[in-house]
Design a protein that fits this description.
The complex is a heterodimer of chains A (about 240) and B (about 70). Chain A has about 240 residues and is mainly alpha-helical. Chain A has one domain. Helices cover about 80% and strands about 0% of the residues of chain A. Chain A contains seven helices and no strands. Chain A has helices spanning about 5-35, 35-55, 65-95, 115-145, 145-175, 175-200, 210-235. Mean pLDDT of chain A is about 80; it is low at about 100-105. Chain B is mostly helical and about 70 residues long. Chain B has one domain (about 20-70). Helices cover about 75% and strands about 0% of the residues of chain B. Chain B contains three helices and no strands. Chain B is flat. The chains are: A mainly alpha (about 240), B mainly alpha (about 70). The interface of A and B includes residues 77, 116, 120, 205 and 218 of A.
Chain lengths: ~240, ~70
């Protein structure tokens, strides 16, 4: 494989990891709160990212990513914990029922009002992860003297992972909203924990693989809490109203 | 001027709703947990183990305070 090919493949694989995180957030939030304002937030994130790349160029490699990760990770952690908690309560109360309407859902505003939460979440996910992809592209490309292949690798990663996320849109719509809220809350809490601590300078023992361990840890905890909630509800039937 | 004030109030309300939500104690404890982690990192302790259990514990506390469990 030529030097350009190696740079392209390396950039593609490194960018795929970040792109998966980006698309996971956008698809998860979109499936839970609707795609209209989620995609607006994602588009705004891409515009900001494009401006930053256009202005910063190769100097992007010097951006301190730590403080950004801390701020965005902390916000995702705090918001994710709210959905995590509400998802536990609703799945415990209603199981997997309720996607098509009767649930008092934590949803987007009625009658088409602007859903700032969906837009904000998508904006943050896209801008942070996009910036990380841009930094990977610039770092690999500039250090190898192969900026062109590096840009192609980064862009290809976004297109491929984005297409996979788009393909998942329909299947996700069939998942009950209460369960989806728990899943997205678990994901946001996991990503938020990972990024916030990385931003603080923590070194994760298994590097990026710890995101998966965090997901498992929070998911198992949720299952335990759901069990406790259900048992308590059986003992105190009046508490079933939530 | 009142329009500007309205925007500021709306932004503050949004941020409060977004960050704190319906349980102030969870948000405060999690921020303190992050601060404690930062302090430990500054002192050479790789404290990756603090925030995840704290998040789960605070979720349990929040659920318990709703009164269904007791």
């Amino acid at each position: 494989m030529t030097g350009a090919g190696v740079v392209l493949l390396t950039t593609f694989l490194a960018a795929v990891v970040e792109a998966i995180e980006m698309v996971t957030i956008v698809v998860g939030v979109g499936a839970t709160r609707g795609y209209r304002y989620t995609l607006m937030g994602a588009a705004a994130g891409l515009v900001v990212l494009a401006v930053v790349i256009a202005v910063g160029g190769v100097a992007l490699a010097a951006i301190p990513i730590g403080p950004l990760r801390l701020v965005i990770g902390s916000l995702l952690l705090l918001f994710g914990l709210q959905w995590y908690r509400k998802g536990i309560v609703r799945v415990a109360a209603r199981g997997f029922a309720g996607y098509h309407g009767q649930e008092p859902h934590e949803g987007p505003p009625e009658s088409g009002g602007f859903d700032s939460t969906a837009a904000f979440l998508a904006f943050k996910g896209v801008s942070l992860e996009g910036l990380e992809i841009a930094i990977i592209v610039v770092s690999f490309g500039a250090s190898a003297g192969q900026l062109g292949p590096s840009i192609i690798g980064g862009a290809a990663a976004i297109v491929v992972v984005g297409a996979a996320g788009f393909a998942l849109q329909r299947p996700l719509e069939r998942i009950p909203r209460s369960f989806l809220q728990l899943v997205v809350g678990t994901m946001l809490t996991s990503f938020g924990t990972f990024w916030a601590l990385e931003g603080l300078g923590v070194s994760w023992p298994q590097s990026d693989a710890d995101i998966v361990l965090l997901l498992i840890f929070y998911a198992l905890s949720a299952v335990t809490f759901i069990g406790l909630e259900r048992r308590a509800r059986l003992q105190t039937p009046e508490a079933v109203r939530t | 001027m009142s329009a500007v004030a309205g925007v500021v109030v709306a932004v503050v309300k949004f941020l409060y709703h977004y960050i704190v939500g319906d349980d102030l104690a969870v948000a405060v404890v999690m921020i303190l947990g992050l601060a404690a982690t930062g302090l430990m990192v500054l002192n050479g302790i790789n404290a990756w183990w603090l925030v995840p259990p704290l998040a789960v514990a605070m979720t349990g506390v929040s659920l318990w305070r709703r009164g269904v469990w007791h």
